[in-house]
Amino acid sequence: MTRLLDLDPEVASFSARPGSRTAVLVSHGFTASPQSVRLWAEAFAAAGFDVSAPRLPGHGTTVADCNTTTWADWLGALRAELRRLAADHDRVVVAGISMGGALCLRLAELHPEAVAGVVLANPAVRLDPLRTAAVTVLGRTLPSWPAIAGDQKNPARPVRAYDRTPLRALVSSTGGWRDTRRDLALVTQPVLLLRSRVDHVVPALSSATVLRGISSIDVTEVVFEESFHEITCDGEHLEVERLSVEFVRRLDASPAT
């Protein structure tokens, strides 16, 4: 069986170490890979920050592989990378798209001492009610349904992702979202939330839930008019990168805690 890794080496984990005391941990979304956040990660590195964009377990290989992994596996991989980065950097900023955004919020909830700031791109902490019901019911019987990745208006880089959505893994993800929503008030770090006005994958309700639930005082929301869900690879990716880098630079200039 052909794996995404066999088709595109950029599906593999990405890292860069210019030698900064600030690191950025970047998470891709569900069914995608580091390829979908490569431009974002490279922008952080070009700005002088150490960067790690790991490939989450079960991603970048096959749909069947993904269905054997869970939210706990993906969160565990990011927690391990966060510990590694925090051990030799003054601060770590986490940045994630879609489900990767939910994972980054969970890291901020569980490890406030290690996460200095959070950048979210169309964060997924809930689906619309009808899709949630369908996932819950069909996830018990079907292994997959049509793909959800690749929602782009003017692709700067077409996203390489699975051509089917692994439903067992998605059911696990929705359970992780529930935990994340429950503990949103624990998020006190500075937050930059970037979202698309039109998103065919994650409803606007998801970002609204995040903004309503977090306790952060330093919060910036920016709405993009010419991008769909895959905002880090769509036509406005340069503006996503600029705003994200400026946010991290501001945190980098503040005294380390």
UniProtKB/TrEMBL annotation:
Gene3D superfamilies: alpha/beta hydrolase. GO terms for molecular function: hydrolase activity. The keyword rRNA processing does not apply. Pfam families: Hydrolase_4. Keywords: Hydrolase. InterPro entries: AB_hydrolase_fold, Esterase_lipase, Hydrolase_4, MAG_DAG_Lipase. SUPFAM superfamilies: alpha/beta-Hydrolases. Residues 21-234 form the Serine aminopeptidase S33 domain. The keyword Hydrolase applies. It comes from the Bacteria. This is Alpha/beta hydrolase. It comes from Kineococcus gynurae.
